[in-house]
Amino acid sequence: MISLTENAAKHVQSYLAKRGKGVGLRLGVRTSGCSGMAYKLEFADAANPEDHQFESRGVTVLVDPKSLPYLQGTELDYAREGLNEGFKFRNPNVKDECGCGESFNI
Fold first, then answer.
1. What whole-number distance in Å separates Cα of residue 78 and Cα of residue 8?
2. pTM to 2 decimal places
């Protein structure tokens, strides 16, 4: 299960409405960074046949099969802290993160 906080869901719904198209949010991981893996996040215009689909607070979250084991149980939040704003990942599978917060390992 992948879930969104209320703030994250509102942000995604607002962005999709402004875009005028899209079926939801695509979440994945890729090999990158000093700790080994980094999150991929994009707005999806269509679901792929192999995607796992989750519904959270009215938002469809799409995850490819290879990324799902690394993301299982993740909660996605959207926060504003001073001049910075963005998505925050609360992933229970993460064992270690790099100092800059851009990558992680499991």
1. 5
2. 0.84
